[in-house]
Design a protein that fits this description.
guanine-nucleotide releasing factor; PH domain-containing protein; guanyl-nucleotide exchange factor activity; globular; seven-stranded antiparallel beta sheet; cytoplasm; PH-domain like
């Protein structure tokens, strides 16, 4: 169903305060795929899951102290059915713009 890669990059997933996971994310036209880098061979990726972007709702989180997650910077929340994922980027552009561009891409490519 997903056929075109729109964006890829590194994101940090915040599991709980003090516990983070580095993930490689690939944004396709209909899904977001995330992988983990191999511990020994950094050029290998292990598939960890995917989320349907039609069901994703991105929410920007303000910089500063969060009640449950601690100190956040360049963070956003991805709400997907029963899952909540808090992710951070190294730059401030955020994934919200990326997901909106994927939504715009899908609308222009429909018949």
């Amino acid at each position: 169903r997903s056929s075109e890669l729109i964006h890829s990059g590194e994101l940090t997933r915040i599991v709980r305060p003090g516990k983070t996971q580095q993930r490689s994310y690939f944004l396709f036209d209909h899904q977001l795929v995330f992988c983990k880098k191999d511990v020994l061979r950094r050029d290998l990726l292990h598939y960890r899951g995917r989320m349907d972007t039609d069901l994703l709702e991105p929410v920007d989180l303000p910089d500063g102290r969060h009640a449950e997650m601690g100190l956040l910077k360049n963070a956003f929340l991805l709400r997907h059915a029963e899952n909540l994922n808090v992710l951070t980027r190294t730059s401030s552009d955020g994934c919200k713009r990326l997901l909106e561009s994927a939504d715009g891409y899908r609308k222009t490519k429909r018949w």
